[in-house]
Structure formats: C-alpha cells, structure tokens
C-alpha cells in the first residue's frame, strides 16, 4: 500500500529545505509537481558537479517529482497555476514573505476557492516579526541560532555544522506539520496555513542546550566531539584515525575500563570515580584514554568495544560511509536511471515501514520535463499547449526528450 497515494502537492520551493520536505512526501507516494521558473529553474540547478549539463546535487532532493516550468508572472501562467491549485491538497513555498501575495497565489487567494488547501510557507525567519523580510539561508540561520559558536573546537573560529542542518530542520518541521494538518483535513475537511522557518526549526533542536541555559544560565560553547554532559562520550585518537566511544553511564564506564582498555584501576581513581568527577577532569581523562588507544588501530578498538557491548565506531570520511557494508545491506545507496545523466546513485530511504513503505520510483526531473504531461492532464488541447510554449508561458529544456 502507498501511504499518500492520490495526494496532490504543488511545490514552489527551491534549494533544500522545501525540496527535502516534498521529497519525503513523494517517497511516501504523493504526486509532487515542482513548479519552476525558467530558463534556469530551481536555483540549486546551478550547483556542481554537472553530469551532461544537469546538476547532480540538485537531483538528490527532487527525486519522485514532476517538473512544470511556468511563468507565474504572466496572466496565463498564473491562470494555469490557479487551476492546478483548485485540485491540490498541499502547496509549499519558500519565497520571501510577501512575494506570493504580490503574485496573487498566497494562502488567502487559494483558500477562497479551495478551503481544504494545506499551504506551507518556509522562510528564513518566519512570516512575522522584525526579521521577517530578511533573506535567510542555512548559514545565516546557523549563525543566529548559536550553532556556529557551539560547533568546532574550543578557542577556534565559529564553525558551520558540516551539513545544512537548519535547512533540513526546517524541511522536517514542514513535513511533520503538513502530515498533522493532513490528518486534521481527513477528520474535518479543513485546510490550514503553516508558517515555519530555518531559524525556529533549528532552534527547536537545541534540546539539551536549552535545559542547561534555562536551568543554570549556561551558554553552550564549542567542545569538539565531546558531549557537554557525559564522558567518555567523544571521538578519541587511535594509531590510524579516530574511534567514537559512548560509555557515559557508570556501568558502561566500568566495563570500558575492565574489558576494553584494561585499566581497572581507573574505576577507583578519585578523578574518574563518577560522572561528576570525570567531567571535572575531562582533559586528563582524554589524555589517559588516548595514551592507550593510540597503541592500536581504529578497527581493533571497534572490535573490542563491540565485544564488551559498549557503543562505539569508526570516524569515517564520507566515501567510507557510503561503502560501509552495513549501510549497503540496509539499502542506503540506491541506483537510479536519470533521463539525461544516465546511471546515477542516491541515498536510500531512512525508514522501513512494514505496511506503507517509502519508495524511490524515479530520478529527479529535468527542467520542464512534465510540462506537456501536466497541461494535457488539465485538458488543454495540443494547440493550446503549443501556443503556451510559443508565447513563453511554459517551458521545457529538452523538447526532443518528450517533455
């Protein structure tokens, strides 16, 4: 069974936050029509590397979607969009606040003729407040949420989290909000408006940090790989790299001392006797642990940690991650056939459902790939469609490819 079969989504988003949200909805079976400007399309299409003049990074969050390239500023383009919106269940957009209203495609405009519409706006700072009109990319949100001052190593420059964490946080917030709104719609028939932002969605993920700040006024700072509340819980140097150790509970700590590093005397050492003392002496603890761990390889210590039942693992580079046998067995690397790029790979679905599994059915579309298909589905004649192309209302990048 396909969970979201028959759910129709118009996706006006670009870059990452919105496309990530609608990618997951598409993986669950929703029909997602990606509405794109032309001739360049989603701005992420400019990101390299290119394969046959198509952006590989842009293809990643846009699988399972259709592409309709349309000029929303033209009267006929807007008319086509509004006709699609009449039958849609969900609309997502990530323009700066106020743009959709100027275009006449905002929630209030759509709600007048489609009261069941679920309309989700994703922006940098939200639709209201003193910063609402500011542009907001992931790096801006990482700075204002404090992420950059709590990432990296002590006494170093502020560091960006390695992935676009605020983008993904906002996409996730939009995703669960849309699903909740859709459940409400199933129960009542009512649609609603959703407003989320990169800043708020990212800030909501600071769970331990807010507890420490509201509890004692502690301002989180960069700690490298260390946990702020537990140790040993970090990456430690080995003879050929690093190994992660998660032995923060007293039981795991004692097992680590006895069965992994074979230092039972540490259990009675007043510096390390309990978690409080270990945290107070964390620099000395790191030095003592690494003095042992640097005598052998990461693989050796992972095997010992596994045998002792202590969570631990290697610190991989990304290429090592994508060739790990466990992740391959879990089908987290998937082969796809792209109509222009040919054979490509993508990351698989992270959740395995027994009754309504997610599925990667198609690669990301090229710009305007489904323009003709969508227009035909709206009962426009071939003559009308050709006139739309001739008048610059709609677009297809590769006319000879059947778009």
From TrEMBL:
<dbReference type="InterPro" id="IPR044855">
    <property type="entry name" value="CoA-Trfase_III_dom3_sf"/>
</dbReference>
<dbReference type="InterPro" id="IPR050483">
    <property type="entry name" value="CoA-transferase_III_domain"/>
</dbReference>
<dbReference type="InterPro" id="IPR023606">
    <property type="entry name" value="CoA-Trfase_III_dom_1_sf"/>
</dbReference>
<keyword id="KW-0808">Transferase</keyword>
<dbReference type="Pfam" id="PF02515">
    <property type="entry name" value="CoA_transf_3"/>
</dbReference>
<dbReference type="InterPro" id="IPR003673">
    <property type="entry name" value="CoA-Trfase_fam_III"/>
</dbReference>
<protein>
    <submittedName>
        <fullName>Crotonobetainyl-CoA:carnitine CoA-transferase CaiB-like acyl-CoA transferase</fullName>
    </submittedName>
</protein>
């Amino acid at each position: 069974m396909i969970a979201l079969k028959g759910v129709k989504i118009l996706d006006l988003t670009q870059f990452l936050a919105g496309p990530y949200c609608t990618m997951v909805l598409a993986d669950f079976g929703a029909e997602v029509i990606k509405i794109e400007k032309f001739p360049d399309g989603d701005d992420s299409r400019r990101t390299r590397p290119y394969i046959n003049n198509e952006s590989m990074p842009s293809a990643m969050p846009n699988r399972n979607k259709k592409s309709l390239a349309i000029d929303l500023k033209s009267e006929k383009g807007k008319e086509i969009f509004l006709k699609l919106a009449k039958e849609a269940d969900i609309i997502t957009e990530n323009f700066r606040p106020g743009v959709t209203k100027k275009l006449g495609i905002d929630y209030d405009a759509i709600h007048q003729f489609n009261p069941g519409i679920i309309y989700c706006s994703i922006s940098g700072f939200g639709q209201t407040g003193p910063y609402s009109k500011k542009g907001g990319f992931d790096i801006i949100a990482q700075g204002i949420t404090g992420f950059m001052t709590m990432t990296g190593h002590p006494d170093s420059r502020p560091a960006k989290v390695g992935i676009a964490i605020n983008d993904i946080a906002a996409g996730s917030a939009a995703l669960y909000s849309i699903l909740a709104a859709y459940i409400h719609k199933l129960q009542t028939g009512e649609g609603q408006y959703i407003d989320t932002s990169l800043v708020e969605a990212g800030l909501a993920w600071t769970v331990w940090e807010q507890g420490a700040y509201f509890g004692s006024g502690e301002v989180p700072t960069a700690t490298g790989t260390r946990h702020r509340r537990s140790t040993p819980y970090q990456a430690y140097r080995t003879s050929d790299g690093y190994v992660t150790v998660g032995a923060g509970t007293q039981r795991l700590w004692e097992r680590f001392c006895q069965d992994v590093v074979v230092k039972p005397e540490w259990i009675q050492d007043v510096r390390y006797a309990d978690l409080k003392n270990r945290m107070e002496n964390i620099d000395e603890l790191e030095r003592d642990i690494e003095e042992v761990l640097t005598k052998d390889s990461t693989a050796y210590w992972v095997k010992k940690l596994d045998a002792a039942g202590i969570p631990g693992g290697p610190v991989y580079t990304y290429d090592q991650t994508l060739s790990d046998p466990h992740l391959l067995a879990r089908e987290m690397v998937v082969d796809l056939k792209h109509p222009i790029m040919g054979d490509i790979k993508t990351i698989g679905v992270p959740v395995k459902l027994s009754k309504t599994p997610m599925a990667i059915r198609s690669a990301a579309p090229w710009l305007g790939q489904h323009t003709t298909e969508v227009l035909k589905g709206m009962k426009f004649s071939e003559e009308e469609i050709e006139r739309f192309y001739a008048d610059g209302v709609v677009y297809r990048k590769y006319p000879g490819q059947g778009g």
